[in-house]
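Entry 14. Structure prediction run on the chain below.
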Amino acid sequence: MSPVDLTLPNSRRYFMRQVGIGMLFALNSSPSVAKLNDKGYWAGTAKQGGFYWLIIFDAQGQVQRQIKLPSRGHGLQQSTKGQLVVCGRRPGVWMLLLQNSLAKPQWLEVTLSSPLSGHCCFSSNGERLYSAENNIQLAQGGIGVWDAHSGLRLNQWLSQGIGPHEVQLSHDGTHLWVANGGILTQPKHGREKLNLATMAPNISYLRLSDGALTQQYSINESQLSLRHIAVNSRNQVAVACQYQGPAHVRKTLLLLIHGGHINYLSCDPKTTLDLNNYLGSVAFDISGEWLSASSPRGHRVVVWRLAQGVEPIYHHTLAITDACGLSASNGLGGFIISTGTGHIYHYAAITKTLSSMEAGARSANDFSWDNHLLPKQLC
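Output returned:
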């Protein structure tokens, strides 16, 4: 069955009935929530009724578009021109590309010889699309290079490591940050991890003009898989990790790269224990001064402050069941948090205020948000 594209009626009632979550921004008592992203849209992938969907909705909680996906989605990314891409979960064999909010979906086919391994991102001018991939023949990570308009595949570079997961554009748009998680997988083995004893994760910095490696960061913890990254306007790079070693051992899971150095961002011992060796997403606020990371397995969201000229400070931890999706919202220290139980929240880190963005009863068994959430300014 080919993927279904549903452009839905402009109805809050329809939204609550079909998607199972009412995001009544305009009716929320918090003025800051009412203004949230009010000139654009939000996008996320979710599961409902046994199917997977891309859902685009506005600040009033009204679904503007709902597109059925061939399988579970994972990474989402936007371009400065209003394009949106969604990647199939690893080992992924499809990408969904939208040129704007009303455009016909473009389905980009990915071969099993180079399946997707997590995320994609656009060049600064929206002309190119870069995808994290596994080159099966070489047993190495790859970066697929695509024409972001036609969807044609142009090239593949080596990611300079194994198991690349998230890729993000540098702040100046000249390089690509690549989180090489270090985990080897093969399509015939599904998602089985084949090399835990010999992992060698790294963060690679690739030049966009030719894919050349210009810098690379390695860590001493070989089983600390580097998974998700976020980049702020100071070109600080936050790296969220997942430890693949013994379950009784706890590791620091958040790194910060800046000025050629890696800093380990530690939190209190109880939170370190609660995170359960797993971070699922990481995001800066709009100022780049506040940083959050989520742990769906630990049911926690952890917040740091990165004031300029000051060492990063662990600020506090928030308990939210199955919290994973994170993105910046309007306002200093503002974040959006989505959960696998079907909830979406606005969180003001400075005042530690959590505001629910839902209304109406619903069953957590028939709907859940996936790992990532994207604030989207669709044209």
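The domain at 74-218 is CATH 2.130.10.10 (Methylamine Dehydrogenase; Chain H).
Filed with the rest of this week's runs.
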